[in-house]
Amino acid sequence: MKLVSFRRGEALQPGALVDGRVADLSAAAASLLDIISSNHEQNWLDQAVRKAPRLPIGSAQLVAPIPLPRRNIFCVGKNYAAHAREFQQSGFDATSSVQDVPTAPVVFTKAPSSVIGPEAAILANLDPTNSVDYEGELGVVISRGGRGISRTDAMDHVFGYTIINDVTARTLQHKHKQWFLGKSIDSFCPMGPTLVTADEIPDPTRLKLETRVNGELRQNAVVSDLIFDIPTLIETISRGITLMPGDIIATGTPEGVGIGFTPPKYLKSGDTVAITIDPIGTLTNAVH
Ligand code: MG
Q: How far away, in angstroms, is 11 Cα from ligand 1 center?
């Protein structure tokens, strides 16, 4: 199922994309977060979608599937080898002096207030250092929570997948050593356009990720190139932290970010970033 959240008037509502239309799930649940947290039987969603009124897709403005996460988004740094090398060579990595490819997952977070939806604007003008960069990533959404989740059980805790753009102010990331400030600016976490349930993506390692800036292909990778795979990330994060339904893990970005170029290709006002992972769709955001 391709789930979405959409705006109608002032309200944000849950829905599903079915045959090019939006099935309005607002009679069944208040939000996608509600659906995720309710831990329904598999066929609950199918039945809810069957009963839901259909809206023309043009009348439903999509927002991020989880427009306001309950808490910070978990993110993984340097999780593709080629990107780890380009990041180290760029000189912007203040956290590591010798080792480019990490020996344990590098985990940080982004503030919930940084989330925006598809077609919303990335506010590059909020970065006083003019060093805004894109990072196309696969996002994993947790269903059942828990602590001490083993690698073996990890995939049973995955509700589905979305796309995250881990937008980063590179100079802030470098200057403040800790990455939080440079990555949590309002609008620096585009998410969407859909949340595809795990049953439709039985093997996420086969997913392909492409990022285009103004139509130019910048990132082109397969998720199987992750250094630390999804089960390892869930095991690592949940070892001492209780994961909760609706938690989001951005799994890391591949090679091809703006600072991988000499000179760096930062985002500027008027640019458009489009990240595609089929079957999730394309997450497109203009830069303001
Ligand atoms: Mg990232």
A: 30
CA 94 to each of CA 26, 101, 171, 178: distance values in angstroms, whole numbers, following the listed order: 46, 14, 10, 8
Neighbours of 178 (CB within 10 A): 11
- Residue 96's pLDDT is 64
Mean pLDDT of 61-82: 97
Between the alpha carbon of residue 282 and those of residues 99, 162, 207, the distances in Å are 33, 10, 13
Nearby residues for ligand 1 (ion, Cβ within 5 Å): 135, 166, 253
Q: Which residue has the tokens 């585009």?
A: 190
Tokens, residue 271? 């640019």
Residues 6+ apart with CB under 8 A from 259: 86, 87, 90, 92, 133, 170
**pLDDT tens column, 165-179:** 999 999 999 999 999
CA of 30 to the centre of ligand 1 (A): 30
Query: What is residue 2's DSSP assignment?
Result: E
CB 83 within 8 A of CB 259: no
Please tell me the pTM assigned to this model: 0.97
Task: Tell me the C-alpha to C-alpha distance, in Å, between residue 124 and each of 35, 81, 227, 284, 285.
Answer: 33, 28, 30, 15, 12
Residues contacting 261, CB < 8 A, separation 6+: none
Cis check: omega of the bond before 231, within 30 degrees of 0: no
The token duo for 113 is 């207030």
pLDDT digits (tens, 9 = 90+) for 6-27: 998 889 999 999 999 999 999 9
